[in-house]
Amino acid sequence: xxxxxxxxxxxxxxxxxxxxxxxxxxxxxxxxxxxxxxxxxxxxxxxxxxxxxxxxxxxxxxxxxxxxxxxxxxxxxxxxxxxxxxxxxxxxxxxxxxxxxxxxxxxxxxxxxxxxxxxxxxxxxxxxxxxxxxxxxxxxxxxxxxxxxxxxxxxxxxxxxxxxxxxxxxxxxxxxxxxxxxxxxxxxxxxxxxxxxxxxxxxxxxxxxxxxxxxxxxxxxxxxxxxxxxxxxxxxxxxxxxxxxxxxxxxxxxxxxxxxxxxxxxxxxxxxxxxxxxxxxxxxxxxxxxxxxxxxxxxxxxxxxxxxxxxxxxxxxxxxxxxxxxxxxxxxxxxxxxxxxxxxxxxxxxxxxxxxxxxxxxxxxxxxxxxxxxxxxxxxxxxxxxxxxxxxxxxxxxxxxxxxxxxxxxxxxxxxx
Length: 417
Prior knowledge:
Blueprint: E1 3-4, E2 10-16, E3 43-45, E4 50-58, E5 70-76, E6 105-110, E7 116-131, E8 135-143, H1 145-150, E9 153-154, E10 162-163, H2 164-173, E11 184-186, E12 192-193, E13 202-203, H3 204-215, E14 218-221, E15 227-230, E16 235-236, E17 242-245, E18 256-260, E19 269-274, E20 281-284, H4 286-292, E21 296-302, H5 307-321, E22 327-334, H6 340-347, E23 354-360, E24 368-382, E25 387-395, E26 397-398, E27 400-401, E28 414-415
Parallel strand pairs: 11-15, 16-26, 17-23, 19-21, 27-28
Antiparallel strand pairs: 1-2, 2-3, 2-6, 4-5, 4-24, 5-8, 6-7, 7-8, 9-13, 10-12, 14-15, 18-22, 19-20, 22-25, 23-24, 24-25
């Protein structure tokens, strides 16, 4: 059952064992107990045996693709009575074969009530380590929906010109992919894919990642296990879901904050080659090159409709990265001292969420700096003594709606919502 950790957070880990686990059994189940007629779930609650959880989701930078998220669970197999051990045919999770098999589902929840999903994915591997004479530890490794797509190949097809979002849906709708519409969230794209020949055995995940590059958006699996496609966003009217740092009573204390500023944040010559094209569309800033040297970024085989679309993508990237900018790159948070409401907020953080981050200084000027950032990656590390969250951050411009007779013309912090 769900466990309240020492600092007050409620934690729960559920594991699919492949068969109904709560069916009422005569002479075994108890009246008014948890079992129900015919059963209702394939999941068992393994929280009491879990020793640590490590969840790693997202990407390291805004110019990278999203690779499959990972989950590692370390559990006390001895305390469970060897229920995790595939060699134990007496395990209640053994029905002719061990129920903990590859592609079985696994879910991790946290927050103030243990209902905030932090990861939903699929078992990839189960390892048992025996420590003589009779200790044993189980390590369960899991991956998210992107890993499932990465193990699937397309049958050759040639879709006509369509929006990037429509191309994502077209790939997921293919009979050889058959990704449920209930397990996806697709935002309408702004870029248009061209007519592309997808050869037999084209990897599904790689095809989708190419569409992500075409859009300059995001394609990832969210914390609820759904495939998400986010359209290109360089500015947003969204409000921050949390404030990190600062002195406000609602602010989340920061344990560590990483700032980057330098040549690694600069791209001043961007080239984009569309699928089937021979020449690349190039956008360059001679002023930036003169100041910081030539910094190249090149992407190829991007399924855009024509060279003009490639030029637009290159120009968009150049506009974002031509000049260095001080960026808050990573932040670390300790959940233990937080209030129930902030604990819930931190457990519920999602890729694409906007945060405000404030760094205060005891010397120098200004005394504090506040920036808007967007979450690009999330890591949860939960042990019996603490819950650490490490956030990988990206840049975003947050705008406020233009108000007639109130807002100032040419103010780059406001826009038409």
